[in-house]
Amino acid sequence: MGGKNKQRTKGNLRPSNSGRAAELLAKEQGTVPGFIGFGTSQSDLGYVPAIQGAEEIDSLVDSDFRMVLRKLSKKDVTTKLKAMQEFGTMCTERDTETVKGVLPYWPRIFCKISLDHDRRVREATQQAFEKLILKVKKQLAPYLKSLMGYWLMAQCDTYTPAAFAAKDAFEAAFPPSKQPEAIAFCKDEITSVLQDHLIKETPDTLSDPQTVPEEEREAKFYRVVTCSLLALKKLLCLLPDNELDSLEEKFKSLLSQNKFWKYGKHSVPQIRSAYFELVSALCQRIPQLMKEEASKVSPSVLLSIDDSDPIVCPALWEAVLYTLTTIEDCWLHVNAKKSVFPKLSTVIREGGRGLATVIYPYLLPFISKLPQSITNPKLDFFKNFLTSLVAGLSTERTKTSSSESLAVISAFFECLRFIMQQNLGEEEIEQMLINDQVDLKWNSLLKIIEKACSSSDKHALVTPWLKGDILGEKLVNLADCLCNEDLESRVSSEPYFSERWTLLSLVLSQHVKNDYLIGDVYVERIIVKLHETLFKTKESSEAENSDSSVSFICDVAYNYFSSAKGCLLMPSSEDLLLTLFQLCAQSKEKTHLPDFLICKLKNTWLSGVNLLVHQTDSSYKESTFLHLSAVWLKNQVQASSLDINSLQVLLSAVDDLLNTLLESEDSYLMRVYIGSVMPNDSEWEKMRQSLPMQWLHRPLLEGRLSLNYECFKTDFKEQDIKTLPSHLCTSALLSKMVLIALRKEIVLENNELEKIIAELLYSLQWCEELDNPPIFLTGFCEMLQKMNITYDHLRVLGNTSGLLQQLFNRSREHGTLWSLIIAKLILSRSISSDEVKPHYKRKESFFPLTKGNLHTIQSLCPFLSKEEKKEFSAQCIPALLGWTKKDLWSTNGGFGHLAIFNSCLQTKSIDDGELLHGILKIIISWKKEHEDIFLFSCNLSEASPEVLGVNIEIIRFLSLFLKYCSSPLAESEWDFIMCSMLAWLETTSENQALYSIPLVQLFACVSCDLACDLSAFFDSTTLDTVGNLPVNLISEWKEFFSQGIHSLLLPILVTVTGENKDVSETSFQNAMLKPMCEALTYISKEQLLSHKLPARLVADQKTNLPEYLQTLLNTLAPLLLFRARPVQIAVYHMLYKLMPELPQYDQDNLKTYGDEEEEPALSPPATLMSLLSTQEDLLENVLGCVPVGQIVTIKPLSEDFCYVLGYLLTWKLILTFFKAASSQLRALYSMYLRKTKSLNKLLYHLFRLMPENPTYAETAIEVPNKDPKTFFTEELQLSIRETATLPYHIPHLACSVYHMTLKDLPAMVRLWWNSSEKRVFNIVDRFTSKYVSSVLSFQEISSVQTSTQLFNGMTVKARATTREVMATYTIEDIVIELIIQLPSNYPLGSITVESGKRVGVAVQQWRNWMLQLSTYLTHQNGSIMEGLALWKNNVDKRFEGVEDCMICFSVIHGFNYSLPKKACRTCKKKFHSACLYKWFTSSNKSTCPLCRETFF
Q: How much is the CA Rg of the chain, to the nearest whole Å?
């Protein structure tokens, strides 16, 4: 145990031995104990009489207890703590006799360990003591005197749980009635122990300086002193009165010691606090003794009056009061004016230094105990005292703490009242109190008025005074003072000001016999003052410190309105009411008022309106508040200065107002109020005109409306980006008001309901038609939905029979949005077709055409029957004939009638081939007669909107004609269509600078549409349909027209994308991107290769491509980063056609890569890889922080969507390029991808983008016996026009890329998968096995079965059901049969190669070949057939005599397909370069693997 060579405990500087322990104990106790931890001195009251001899002790103490007691003497805290807990448990569990055996030794241990430095040990000691007491009970009595002193100290422990545990033990031993008796029994011993601790002990006597650190020694000493002082106090408090005299001598001895009095100035606050508590107890219990020591007590206590420690203060001030009470002549021993009062003044001037709640309640008792001789001259003393108190209010702590300020104020008024009572009749002091301190007259007034209102007799006595000018003027001045003063300071929150506000509230709200207390004129003037203050708050542009004044005004006004039931409202009170309403109807951003104040304001103005509507004489009809508030509301919504939040606040306030107005039984009030807010027709028209015109973009592009004039005057401005247009605000407000009225079945006059609903529909249609509506507009529509401000809701509540007629009238008069509203209502089934039919029954009434009639017919077209459309068409066809040149472009001419025909044709309802041919011939005749109207290869800046409009309709007709006309065309008709198309495209190309003009943009769109439709038509021609076409049409199309389209559109694409890098495809300014890009997808590979784009080459770019190809790649590839989906998809389609052409240029240079490098690598096209690098950085920002396996949903058409789309399309191109390369090139490319880790990044991203369930939505319900369609089984159609499937584009594309990666780079994916962390490993395995492996296995097996590849001497067969491929190799008499088994998680898992039939091959060679095939299939990035071809080539070489590489035992290298070429100069054996490189790097040697000679 105590071996000298063992490692010592940390901090133990000397070897442990029993001799040293005995020496220490002897030094500490003066004797060597017979039992560890027990002393023998009989004279020491704290120690137990010793029993000499270990044998005797052993016979008295139970062996288990003896072990525990030994542990209690150890120094280690944990050992002591566990031992004490064990001791307590044993006391509970063992029998009484066994436990009694410990009692002689317990006091010694208890007295020592109860002072232990560790608080947990002290707590455990008291808990164990309680258990001991409960077991031995009265058997403890003989040991009480040696325990009690330490026991009392333990009850005063500074660690509260330990103190509570000691008290619990004490109460377990003695019930409360017996405690004084127990204390009296041990009083002498207690006093001796405590006095010794206070007078004799030091830190070094309480703890061993050699083993205990100084800091710990001091801490223990301070705690013991504190406990001893508090224990003495407890002794005094518990000791019966008749026992006190016997201790007087001992206390006199204690008080004679200077060391005791020094504790009052001790640096430790706990000691000072305990000291002052003891002084208070001594004054209370032994007053005579304290009087004798007055010369020491007084300075010790009174000169400490400025002690501001929060621990000391309560005890100190209690001691101060006890000193003043007990020692009458205490002031003889201190200089009050020089020493005490200056300290007191400093403390209260500083607001009690954060302890006002503790100190200030003592101030009144303190000054009440001051003798007159001390306070003379009284005037100066009290003035200084009160001034100091007031000064304390302005300290920072007092200002920020309501409890502190309340304590100061309470003390001030208590002392003030006391001083006044004590000095009644002394004019000088009274004058000082009135003038210099506080004006108490308002308080007096309040009491007088309250008493006057308590009975009619008293009121009658003072009525002249109440109604008089003096009081009235005084109260008006008070209102002015309070309002203005509060705007400048915060003091208004104090009770002093609160009383004044209460006074104002009283005189305004108290009524006697339905009359105000004071004169009406003064009530009016006070309300004006209150209104002025509120008005300043409303008009202030910044938050001012007026919250409290507004709060008080609310209280006053609320009381005024609530109590004025029988009194008429003053005119000024309606102004006040209006301002209160306005403050509540404006957003917090404008008023800067907190929520609690807004709530107060709301209650206040509602009480005023409530009073207004309940007046019995209908005087509310003349109310200025109702009129002015309606005018204000009207101005607010028409000023175009409200954002969503402001409008919500306004609508909420109006809701409250109207619901209060509804409490009036007269519906007249509500009707008049709505009528007052309602704008007139010209105001409505002005607001409609001010709406930005971007709403027209979509209807124009979609062909729902046709225009032949420029009307794009109004546009969104930067500053309007948050404020709602006035039309939206006004329609929302009035709809809200109407909704409230309808719920109460109030019928509006003058068709107001229909007008308001029509304007609401106009606002909502405007919002709906916008392309990319700002967030504040979508928020506006959501707000209306939440508030039930919808057409359907209003229609259900009110009679809207005249609405449809009104909408038709407006549509036929104005067209535009009014026409679209009708279409929207029909489409949403809000109105039925039967309701609409009467309004267009007479088709001829729509002619002659106007803009309104045209737009109305166009909007109705999708819902008309075939017959109805024929009727409208019949009206148009005659009108198309015989127009003059000017008539062709007018609304009632060629433009309007062709637009109607197009609208009818757009819905596929005209199947009359002859009719369509007839229209085409009419248009051809127009060209012959008025060719200058046709905008062929011209400058559009000189073209009028009318001419642009008619060209747009002609082009639209030709596109629709191609789609819906099935009868064959004459060659001249084809020539007209194709030549016109190309000429319009040339115009489009030449006028790119004018694309910002909406009609030019639209012209460009329809021109590209026509080119796209023609391309689609010729692309879809089959052998069956070619027969219906003119003989040379197809060749003309391919050689001239198709070439012409792409030679024009490709440069436009480059120009448009070069001018603007950041555009959205939904933006009208880029509308022509969609049709242009779709047309470019039809470009052939030959046309691409014969491009005429300017050269674009990059310095130092490594490439084997010819210049024209590199230019094409450098021009198009960067556009995959372009933030417009149509551009990205078009560029992908074009580059996709090029990819198979590119590897051949690397193949031609293949000999330059190879065995000269240890690990040769070749980059795929540098342009693509550079682009990929940029995209990887962008994707890292989008997806980098997302864990693999957590699916990210990319919002369609967002910036992130374009980044991800471009990235995935780039990979599809790289994989297409990779697939087109030879095996040798694929090995070089894959090595490059491996080095750059690009593929790893892709795979991680794919598992953040692929959906957990890649099943098609429509096949989510599984059909029995049929595999569901998934993103892996179905081909992805990257459509530019189709946007319905946009949410699935990224998930489907990610699945497509993963499928290609697994198919074309299986070895690299397998390598990544095997090296990934376990979580990712499992995610990839589960997903691939469930959704991809079966698809790939089936495709691989199918490709083997359908393969046309022939092997000389080898046959290959496949079994789909077992996922097996069987290869039989035959040469001369040798037959080799191998069976290749695909794993269930193909291609992640390893492909197994099993032995079949074997004839004429040695076992070792057989195993080598099986291993080689397995290696090829595992490491080559290709199909099984390619792997087999490679293996066969290897075996063939072997039979041709080419020796194996003696490292990999294969002729053809398993990864880069090279032959063994590096020969050793010594043994002449040849090796693969890659194998040698691996050998040298892994062995760290440059010797031959066979002969071990130096290789080089």
A: 51
Pull the structure tokens for residue 930: 């008025």
At 1376, give phi and psi (nearest 5°).
-125, 125
Calpha distance 831→1314 (Å, rounded): 63
Mean pLDDT score, 470-478: 78
Return the pLDDT at 909: 64
- Our CA angle for 1417, 1420, 1424, nearest 5°, is 45
Q: How far apart are CA 618 and CA 615, in angstroms?
A: 6
Name which of 865-869, 1054-1058, 1255-1259 the model is least confident about.
1255-1259
- Residue 268's closest CA among 123, 152, 156, 158? 158
Helix axes 1238-1249, 1199-1220, angle to 10 degrees: 130
Nearest alpha-carbon partner for 1041 in 1080, 1071, 1015: 1015
CA distances in angstroms from 821 to 712, 731, 783, 825, listed in the order given: 20, 15, 20, 6
**Nearest-CA neighbor of 971 among 1032, 1045, 913?**
1032
Residue 1098 has pLDDT above 90, yes or no: no
Centroid of chain to Cα 1355: 64
For 859, 863, 1465, the CA distances from 840, given in Å and listed in that order, are 12, 12, 101
Higher pLDDT: 393 or 857? It is: 857
Considering only the C-alpha atoms of the chain, give the largest distance between any 2 of them, rounded to a whole number of Å.
144
The better pLDDT of the pair 523, 622 is held by 523
Instruction: Decide if 360 contacts 390 (C-beta within 8 A).
Output: no
Name residues whose C-beta falls within 8 Å of residue 721's C-beta, 6 or more positions apart in sequence: 774, 776
Handedness of CA 397, 402, 405, 407 (dihedral sign): negative
Res. 882 pLDDT band, cuts 50 70 90:
low
Pair 1222, 1312: CB distance under 8 Å: no
Determine contact, residues 557/530, Cβ cutoff 8 Å.
yes
Phi and psi at 876, nearest 5°, equal -85, -40
| pLDDT the model gives residue 1280 | 86
CB-based contact 727:688 (threshold 8 Å): yes
Closest alpha carbon to 816 in 865, 879, 762, 875: 762
pLDDT of 245 over the 70 cut: yes
Average pLDDT, integer, range 770-785: 87
For the cut 60, the answer to whether the pLDDT of residue 1400 exceeds it is no
The larger pLDDT score, comparing residue 411 to residue 22, is at 411
| Residue type (1 letter), 600 | K
Q: Give the count of beta carbons closer than 10 Å to the beta carbon of residue 73.
A: 19
Contact yes or no for 857/903 (Cβ under 8 A): yes
Report how far residue 1182's alpha carbon sits from residue 1189's, in angstroms, rounded to the nearest whole number: 15
Structure confidence at residue 7 (pLDDT): 46
Sign of CA dihedral 464, 470, 473, 475: negative
358-375: average pLDDT: 86
Q: pLDDT at residue 801 above 90?
A: no
- What is the reported pLDDT for 47? 32
Mean of all residue pLDDT scores within the chain? 81
Find the distance separating the first CA and the last CA of the chain, reported in whole Å.
Answer: 67
pTM over 0.85: no
In this structure, the strands spanning 1392-1399 and 1462-1463 are: unpaired
- In sequence order, the 6+-apart residues with CB closer than 8 A to the CB of 1412 are 1431, 1434, 1449, 1450, 1454
**Residues near 183 by Cβ (< 8 Å), separated by ≥ 6?**
148, 152, 190, 235, 238, 239
At 572 the pLDDT is 77
The values of phi and psi at residue 240, to 5°, are: -60, 155
User: Which is nearest to 1206 in space by CA: 1296, 1272, 1128?
Assistant: 1128
